[in-house]
TrEMBL record:
Keyword tags: Hydrolase
Protein name in the entry: Phosphonoacetate hydrolase
Similarity-based family: Belongs to the YjdM family.
NCBIfam families named among the record's database cross-references: phnA
Cross-referenced PANTHER family: PROTEIN YJDM (PTHR30305:SF3), PROTEIN YJDM-RELATED (PTHR30305)
Naturally occurring in which organism (per UniProt): Paracoccus seriniphilus
Domain Protein YjdM C-terminal: 44-111
Residue ranges constituting the Protein YjdM N-terminal domain according to the UniProt record: 4-33
Molecular function GO labels: hydrolase activity
């Protein structure tokens, strides 16, 4: 029985299980090392809940107006090699046709590789 496993630190689900050397939550997908007290670990997710990581490829899910420009980033624009950062715009990336900028994770969807 898995009663001895701690609840998920991200969502408090009691349904945690062991996955190799980590503990995992089937409800939110959070994984952590047993005994770790890393409460400061921030998990950045895309618009549908997929966990994002540095180097991922994402697509834009809605037209985004670019401040200071008359054009906008169109739906379906593929952005490669993202970098996660702290702040309101939590993705730092180079958007084709626009250059370096920050995006919010709620406006992108991770591309399956």
């Amino acid at each position: 029985m898995t009663d001895s496993l701690p609840p998920c630190p991200a969502c408090s689900s009691p349904y945690t299980y062991e996955a190799d050397a980590l503990l995992a939550c089937p409800e939110c997908g959070h994984e952590w090392a047993p005994g770790s007290t890393d409460e400061d670990a921030v998990v950045i997710r895309d618009s549908v809940g997929n966990v994002l990581a540095d180097g991922d490829t994402v697509t834009v899910i809605k037209d985004l107006k670019v401040k200071g420009s008359s054009s906008s980033i169109k739906v379906g624009t593929k952005v490669r090699g993202i970098r996660l950062v702290d702040g309101d715009h939590d993705i730092d990336c180079k958007v084709p046709g626009f250059g370096q900028m920050g995006l919010k994770s709620q406006f992108v969807k991770k591309v399956s590789d």
